[in-house]
Specification:
Distance between the termini: 39 Å
Strand order of the largest sheet: 5-6-7
Number of domains: 1
Order of helices and strands: EEHEEHHHEEE
Number of strands: 7
Mean pLDDT: 80
Structural class: alpha+beta
Shape: globular
Helix content: 25-40%
Largest sheet: 3 strands, antiparallel
Low-confidence stretches: none
Strand content: 25-35%
Length: 142
């Protein structure tokens, strides 16, 4: 798994095993990388390069050592990682948008370069279209 600072190709085998347990328990979601050059997106999916997501926002709050907040408290709070929280929320919504019993297809795109990286947060397919989804947090604090 490559994304952020987690690498399954180094001494982080314990992290991979722990994540696999969370994923199999349904607590975490692995969103694989794909080149996004054609359909179906799954053909070019790279399961060794994933974006990890929690099952729900309450788990994020617990992982951040935050007490559970109401929606109003959450909206009025200022977080250092607002972009990550927004990306997590959108990822959850996109992942669970599918019909019951149909496995969802959610991917992301990443280009790693020597001096710069580029990422599209999520890629979806709808019919014959590939739809890129870029998530940005909006600070609406007064």
């Amino acid at each position: 798994m490559r994304h952020g600072s987690v690498s399954f190709h180094s001494k982080a085998a314990a992290v991979k095993n722990a994540f696999d347990l969370l994923r199999h328990a349904g607590i975490a979601i692995a969103v694989p990388h794909t080149s996004g050059t054609g359909l179906p997106l799954s053909v070019q999916a790279d399961e060794s390069c994933i974006k990890p997501l929690f099952l729900d926002g309450g788990l994020i709050q617990t992982a951040l050592n935050r007490p559970i907040m109401s929606a109003e408290e959450f909206q009025s709070a200022r977080f250092i990682n607002e972009g990550s929280l927004a990306e997590q929320f959108v990822g959850q919504e996109l992942y669970f948008r599918h019909r019951y019993g149909v496995r969802p297809s959610l991917y992301y795109w990443l280009r790693e370069g020597k001096s710069t990286n580029a990422e599209v947060d999520y890629l979806l397919s709808y019919g014959t279209e590939i739809i890129p989804v870029e998530v940005k947090s909006v600070i609406a604090h007064e």
